[in-house]
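During the reporting period the student researcher (J.K.) took over the structure-prediction task from the postdoctoral fellow and processed the backlog of single-chain submissions. One of the processed entries is reproduced below for the supervisory committee.
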Amino acid sequence: MKRRMWILVLMVSSLAILLALAENQTEFLRTNANEMPENDSESKKKNITYYTKYYQTKKSIYDSYTHQDSETIFLGDSLTDYYEWGEALSDFRVLNRGIAGDTTTGVLNRLDEVIKAKPDRVYLLIGINDMIAGQSINKIETNYKQILDTLKTNSPNTEVYVQSVFPVNTALTGHRLKNPVIKELNERLEALSSLYNYQYIDIYSDLVEFGQLNKNYTFDGLHLNGEGYKVWTRKILTTYNTNDKDES
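J.K. obtained the following structure tokens:
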């Protein structure tokens, strides 16, 4: 009898714990998804950005910033977020607008701040987190088109540079990402760049070796290390001249 009672107590306790965990998860989603359109079920399923307090915190900081003339904005996810672009380019007018974990939908949600800045240049790199979340490249392409269309319409004097999505090293990363699919997306991004008369920067080719992200440029197969960022910086410098606007 006592054994049955103990089993019953354990079952009730386990159920209570599970219910508490479920309630905490529900509260987490409710707290962190307050910017997600209620009817956008596809975005809720595929874009985790809206569910993070990091995204909301970074966005609120960016929105509070007072912009100056002749700024350059690097816009993207963790690959952009992790680097000190102003130091790398020796230009205090360079702003880092990377948010780790961000997606094309997340960029669309915070594009107003970029448009408000009316920057001289925008270097855009986004999309790998969409792919990690299982988003189709058709949807990613659609979102890219909306991003570029919004920039072209609302900040027509801004030079936009569309950067290729980087390769991954499948032996090092735990994500189910395929470089041939990334290459297909990059082909579409290059075509979109041409359509909007923006410059496309192929960084993929500089980072790849034997079809994979060069292991000398990464620790985890997805993000770049210091040597990888040197390669990226050299590529950016082929398009970057702080005197361009002054001479025009």
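The committee noted the following: The first strand starts at residue 72 and ends at 76.
J.K. will present the remaining backlog at the next meeting.
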